[in-house]
Write a structure and sequence with these properties.
Helix content is about 30%, strand content about 30%. It is built from 10 helices and 18 strands. A hairpin with a 2-residue loop joins strand 14 (about 265-270) and strand 15.
């Protein structure tokens, strides 16, 4: 039961943002820029962000060549171009907002591994030319000469993107939370939203029990977990499996790497290798919000580490975890006004680091 003081001061707000991941933080920060005097709170049911913000691979990317080509085929050139532009704009916002030190950014570039049917030079150059209005220079280059240097096996082509970089996801979110506090935005963890009726939010906490928070405007940034509040939303969960090796002396590569249209991704973290993906092996089973390993995918990741990424290099798996992403059929972010009090913002389709700052600005500007 809440005290008199809590009822007077801590349960009435101008804006309540549900979800303290990168999207929720981006929305809350944009709200502060637009409404300097507003009373803003962010509710997070976990101790840390629940979805993927602190569980991802830590890529600052906008899409690998084969992923972009797949999107062009699926969505058409106009829509695919728009999504890439949005991702790049979001990355610029994040960089300007937090900077390299607070995100732990390293600029080792990005690469795509292609195992068969290498992309002709005309296709790679044509893709870079198509993207010139966004990047102002040819963004993709053939770096196949480095395949042997990196030690990869069964790779026929290696494409390079100089502007792709890596971040420390934990450091980024810690400093995003600090930024919100500096801007007089409250974050309450351990606050699980159970129901929303009008401007009333039913919240459950293990210690306090159930209570009601009231808000003039509610913005839901719960990613794929929206299905637990509103089952009919056009967003599906997508679970990502991630494994991390022990430290490997003389690791022959640095940077972020992708293959199979972005379904697989790996990078170095110091001397370790983080490897994730494989969701396409079992899409239906990975369409879940359960934080559980999928042994078929974990074994596939281990095999690919052994056969392709670290051949003849001994390693051990020291950690594994899962992150939950949100996906829309259109591959576009979702910004929906649900009623006079509530808006939903999410579905970054595995590109939350890039898209969240841009989509948050778009959503707040529409209020």
């Amino acid at each position: 039961m809440l005290s008199f003081w809590e009822q007077q001061t801590l349960i009435n707000y101008d804006f309540v943002v549900v979800g303290a991941g990168i999207m929720g933080c981006s929305v809350a920060f944009e709200l502060r820029q637009k409404y300097p005097q507003a009373k803003i709170v962010v509710l997070e049911r976990g101790i840390f962000p629940t979805g993927a913000s602190t569980k991802n691979a830590g890529f600052m990317c906008f899409g690998s060549p084969t992923e972009i080509l797949s999107d062009i085929k699926l969505l058409g050139e106009k829509k695919a171009f728009e999504i890439i532009w949005q991702r790049f704009e979001g990355l610029k916002i994040l960089s300007e907002r937090l900077g390299n030190e607070k995100t732990g950014r390293t600029t080792n570039g990005g690469f795509e591994l292609i195992f068969s049917n290498p992309l002709p030079k005309g296709v790679v150059d044509g893709l870079s030319e198509w993207l010139l209005p966004i990047f102002k220079f040819p963004v993709f280059n053939d770096f196949s000469k480095n395949i042997e240097k990196f030690g990869f096996q069964n790779v026929q082509q290696l494409l390079h993107c100089a502007i792709e970089s890596q971040i420390d996801s934990g450091k980024m979110m810690l400093n995003y939370w600090k930024l919100l506090h500096e801007n007089n935005i409250q974050i309450i963890t351990g606050a699980e939203v159970k129901n929303i009726q009008g401007n009333r939010i039913e919240v459950e906490n293990n210690v306090t029990g159930g209570f009601i928070i009231k808000a003039t405007q509610i913005i839901l940034c719960t990613n794929a977990f929206i299905s637990e509040l509103l089952p009919d939303m056009p967003v599906k969960p997508g679970r990502g499996q991630v494994i991390l090796t022990n430290e490997i002396e003389n690791l022959p590569f640095q940077g972020s790497f992708h293959f199979d249209e972005g379904f697989y991704y790996f990078r170095n973290i110091g001397k370790r290798v983080l490897f994730g993906g494989g969701r396409n092996l079992d899409l239906k089973k990975e369409e879940t919000t359960a934080f559980e390993p999928n042994e078929e995918i974990i074994n596939d990741l281990k095999n690919k580490l052994t056969q392709i990424i670290l051949p003849n290099i001994p390693f051990e798996i020291e950690q594994q975890w899962q992150g939950i992403m949100g996906f829309s059929d259109s591959k576009s972010p979702v910004v929906m006004t649900l009623n006079a009090h509530t808006k939903y913002v999410m579905a970054c389709n595995g590109m939350g680091v890039a898209l969240s700052p841009f989509v948050a600005k778009l959503a707040v500007n529409s209020l």
